[in-house]
Amino acid sequence: MTTTTQQTATGTPRQTPGLLPLPSAAAGLTTAAGAVLTFASTFLAWTWTAEFPGDLTVTGYPGGLQLLTLTGALLTLLFTLAGRGLRGLGWLTPGGKNSPVLLLALGTFAVTWYTIIAIAVELGGLANLEPGGWVALVTSLITLIGALGLPGDIPADTDNASPWTRFVQSLKAPTPEKAAPLPSWAEILIIAISFGLGLFVFTYGIDTEYAELFIGFLLLVGFGATAIARAGLNHRLSALTATHKNVTVTAAFVAAFAFPFTQSNDAYATIGANILIFATVALGLNVVVGLAGLLDLGYVAFLGVGAYTAALLSGSPSSTIGITLPFWAAVLAGAAASLIFGVVIGAPTLRLHGDYLAIVTLGFGEIFRIGMQNMDGSSGPDITNGPNGIPNIPDLELFGFNLGEPHTVLGVELGRFSNYYLLMLLFTIIVVTVFRRSDQSRIGRAWVAIREDETAARAMGINAFRLKLLAFALGATLAGMAGTVQAHVTFTVTPAQYKFVEAVPPNSAFLLAAVILGGMGTVSGPLIGAALLYLIPAKLQFMSDYQLLLFGIALILLMRFRPEGLIADRRKQLEFHETGQLDTPKGDIGLSKAGA
Amino acid sequence: MNTMTNNTATTTPVLHAAGVTMRFGGLTAVRNVELTVNSGEIVGLIGPNGAGKTTFFNCLTGLYIPTEGTVSYKGAVLPHKSHLVTQAGIARTFQNIRLFANMTVLENVLVGRHTRTKEGLWSALLRSPGFKKAERESEERAMELLEFTGLAAKRDHLARNLPYGEQRKLEIARALASEPGLLLLDEPTAGMNPQETRTTQDLVFAIRDQGIAVLVIEHDMRFIFNLCDRVAVLVQGEKLVEGTSEVVQGDERVVAAYLGTPYEGAPGADEVAEVEDAEAHSTPGTSGSSGTEGENQ
Fold it and tell me: Is it the case that residue A339 has pLDDT exceeding 90?
C-alpha cells in the first residue's frame, strides 16, 4: 500500500482507465456538459402541481430539491474543470482529481433521481412529470456516465479487475502533498470561511421543512463531504487547523454561537438545543469509553441524576424538597450528586473488565430509572413523584435575564430554546475543554494505556483502578452538569427519559452509538455523531415505526465499512486499516497528538 | 567478567527474594526460591520451559502475590501491587511484547514516566505553568531514552508499526523511563537474529553502566553466559544452582535438566549410555562456544 502512495507521489503516468471505456478527454467533456445541462434543467419545471413540497413547478426559478441538484451540478462542474487543470481552480483538487468528480456526479444523480422518483411515487405515476423532470433525469445520467469514464486517480494493482473493484478503485484518491505556505491572515480566513460554510450546511439541514428535502440534503452532503475529502481539501484544512489551533477552536464556537441568530423559527432552535445536550453528554461518555476504554451501558443515568437534582432544587411546585437554589448552585449540586453516584457505582464495579463491566453498568442504569420510578411515596420514600416525574420546572433567570422569554439581540429575536441553546453551548465549551486538556496530559495517556493493555499499564506504575475510577467519575460529573440544563429545557423530568434504549435520544444506547459512529477518542466525532443521530429521527418522522430497525442497519453498515467512525482518531484509523507506514508525519504538521 | 563479579560482590543488594513460593491450587510453580541481585550486577535466570521463571518474575513485580516468602527492594519489603513495585524502582519488560500498540513511540515512553511525574487532573485541566514544565521535562527525558535505544527517529510512529526488534527496544526504553534501580528483562532476545542479539547485549551493558542492576530471563545460553555476572538456574520451580557461568555450565544437574535424566533401571541401557555420551560431549561444546564469545567482547 505504501508503494501506491509512492508511485503517485512520484507522478507515475500510468493510469487505470475508468469504469466505462471512454477516452479521458471525451469523458471529461461529457461530464462537464452533463453538469451544465443538469444545472440548466433545474430552472425548468419538474412537475405540474405544487402538491409536491417545495414547489418545483416554476420555470426559471429553482426551488426545494432542485436547489440541491443545482448545487450538486455546480460542484461537479467546478471539480471537473479543476481536475482538467483550469487555471485558478487548481487549489480545489490537491489530492484526487477524478474521484471527487465521480462522487459529486453520483451525489447529483442520486438527488435528482430520488426527487423524480419521489414525485412519481407521491403524486401517483410518471405522468406527473413535466418535461423539465425528464431532462434532469437524462442530464444527470449523462454526467454520471461521463464521470464513470474518467480514469482512476490511483493505479490499480491488477489490470484485469472486476468492474466492482475498478469502481471502488476509482473512488480512491492520493493524499495531497504539503501545501505551499500562505500568509497567516489568509490561512485564518480560510478556516473562518470553512466554519462559516459548515454552519451554513448544518443550519440548512436543521431548517429543512419536509422529509424529502432532508433526505436529498443527506444524500448530497454524504457524497459531497466524501468528494471534498477525496479532493484532499480536508487534509489541507486539517493541516491549517493544526497550525492555528486556537483560531480553529474559536471559529468553531463562533459558528456554534451564531446558530440561533440564523433561526427565525424557535422550533428549529429546539432541535439545536437538544442536539447540544445530546452531544455534550456523548462527549462526556467519550472520556469513559473513548479514552479509558470502559464500556458503560448505563451512562444516561448520570444525566438523570443531574436532571433530578436540578429539578428538585429548581423551585418547581412539584418538587418534594422545599429548597430552591440559584442555578449555579444547582449545577454544582447536580454535578456533585452525579460524581458521588459515579464513585459509588464505579468503586465496586471497576474491578471488572470488558463485558462484565458493560453488564453491570447496564444494570445500574436500569436500577436508577426504576429507583426513580419507585420513589413515589407508595413503593418507597416520596421523593421523585414516581412515573409522573417532576413537572413545571420554572425557566431560569440569569442576571435578570429570563431564559423562558424571547429577547431581541442584535435585531434578532431569540426565543426560549435559542436562549437555552446558548446556555448549553457554555457547558459544551467546558466539556470540550475538559476533554481536550485531560486527553493531552499524563492522566489522558494513562487512560489510553489502560485501554490498550491494563497489565502493562500497571507494570508501568499506573494505579489502574484509581485512574479508571477517575475517568468514570469525571464522565459522571460532566453528564450530571449537562443534566441540570436538560431539566430546565424539557420542563419535566421523568424516569422514562432515561431508558437504556428508546426511539428518542439521548439514551444510553444512542449515546454510545454517537460516540462510536462519530469516532472514539475525538472531540468532533461525538458532536457530529450526536447531531446526525438526533437530526435524522427528528426530520424523518414518517419512518418513526422503523427507526430502531434502520438505526441498527446503519450501525451494522458503518461498523463494517468504517469501523473507526466518521471522524477517525489517527490511532484508530491506523488500527483498523493496515496502512503500513502512513503514520510517518508529513513535513512539520504537528501530529504528535491524535484526535481532531 | 570475573573481576567484575568480585567488584560487585561487596556492593549492596538491590533485590532480595526470600523463600518465594507460588502455588496455583495444587500446583507449585515456584518453590522456596532465594535470589539476590546486587547493585551494578547483571544476573541471569535460566531454566527449561515451564520452570517457573516468568511466574517468579510476576511474583517479584507484584503481578502475583506469592503464597509464601517476601521480596524486598533495597531493604524494604515490596507491597503486592504492581504499580507500587514500579514506583519503588523495579521496572520490567514482558516475554510476549506488551506495548501500548496504538500509542506512538514517544507516548509509550511518556507512559513509563507516569510514576516519576505528579501532575494530576486539576493541573491538566488548568494548564498551570508547572504542568507545562513537567510535560516538557518528561518529553525531554523520553527523547533522551529514545536516543539511547536508537528509536528517536521513530518517535511519532505507532508502536504497532515498529519492526519486532525495535518493539523489544521500545519496551526497554519504556521500562527505563520509570527511572528504575532494577530492570527485569523477560526474554529480551526471543526471536531475534544474532545481530539484533548483539545490539541488545550492548544495550544491557550500557544500562548496567548507568548503575541499573539487571535481572534477565533468557533461553539463549550464549547471550546469557556472555552477559551475566551470575546465573541462577530454575528447574521445576526450584533453584538448582547459582553462580558464575563457569559454575553453572559445569553443573551436571543443569545439563540433565535441559537434556533429561534417565531413571534408574530403565530398559535399554544402550540408549542411556548414548544420552550420557551426548551429555559428555555437549559440556565441552558449550564452554567452547562461551570461549568464542569471550573473543567477541
Answer: yes
Cell numbers representing residue A512 in the block: 454510545
C-alpha cell at A348: 465496586
Dihedral pair phi/psi, residue B30, rounded to 5°:
-135, 130
Is B156 in CB contact (< 8 Å) with chain A? yes
* Cα–Cα distance measured from residue A523 to residue A596, given in angstroms and rounded to the nearest whole number: 6
Beta bridge partners of B266: none
Q: pLDDT tens for residues A235-273?
A: 778 778 777 777 888 888 888 888 888 777 777 788 888
The three three-digit cell numbers of residue B131, written as one number: 504542568
Interface membership of B136 toward A (CB under 8 Å): no
The yes-or-no verdict on residue A449 having pLDDT over 90 is: yes
pTM of the predicted model over 0.90: no
**Quick one: residue A580, left, alpha or beta (phi over 0 = left, psi -120 to 50 = alpha)?**
left
CB contact under 8 A, B114 and A455: no
Q: Tell me which chain A residue has its CA closest to the CA of residue B84.
A: A461
CB nearest A459 (choices: B82, B119, B155) = B82
Q: Which three cell numbers stand for residue A195?
A: 466554519
Rg (CA), chain A: 26
Residue B6 binned pLDDT confidence (cut-offs 50, 70, 90): very low
Q: Is B206 on the interface with A (CB under 8 A)?
A: no
Measured torsion, CA atoms of residues A368, A338, A474, B101, in degrees rounded to the nearest 10: 0
- For residue B79, give the DSSP letter: P
Q: Percent of chain A having pLDDT more than 70?
A: 91
Shortest distance, CA B218 to any CA of chain A (angstroms): 20
Measured CA to CA in angstroms, residue B156 lies from A153, A436, A591, B119, B166 at distances of 28, 19, 8, 23, 14
In A, what residues contact B, Cβ < 8 A? 433-434, 437-438, 440-446, 448-449, 452-453, 455-464, 470, 474, 571-572, 574-575, 580-581, 583-585, 591-592
* CA–CA gap between residue B235 and residue B256 (Å, rounded): 10
Nearest-angstrom CA–CA distance, B217 and B231: 10
Confidence of residue A115 (pLDDT cuts 50, 70, 90): confident
**Is the model's pLDDT at B184 over the cut of 60?**
yes
Please give the helix or strand (H or E) that residue A414 lies within, else none. strand A412-414
Residue-level pLDDT at B276: 66
- In this predicted structure, the answer to whether residue B212 has a pLDDT above a threshold of 50 is yes
Is the ipTM of this structure higher than 0.85?
Answer: no
- Best B111, B132, B139, B184 member to test A by mutation, with max A CBs in 10 Å, is B111
Q: pLDDT tens across A129-139, in order?
A: 778 778 888 88
Closest CA to B89 of B142, B170, B14: B14
Q: Which residues of A touch B138 (CB under 8 A)?
A: 442
In contact, B129 and B220? CB cutoff 8 Å:
no
- Determine whether the interchain pair A461/B120 forms a contact, defined as Cβ–Cβ distance below 8 Å: no
The pLDDT tens digits for B62-90 are 888 899 888 999 888 888 888 899 989 99
Residues A92 and A233: beta-carbon distance below 8 Å: yes
Asked whether B152 and B143 are in contact (CB, 8 A), the reply is: yes
Q: Does B104 touch chain A (CB under 8 A)?
A: yes
pLDDT digits (tens, 9 = 90+) for B257-273: 777 665 555 545 565 56
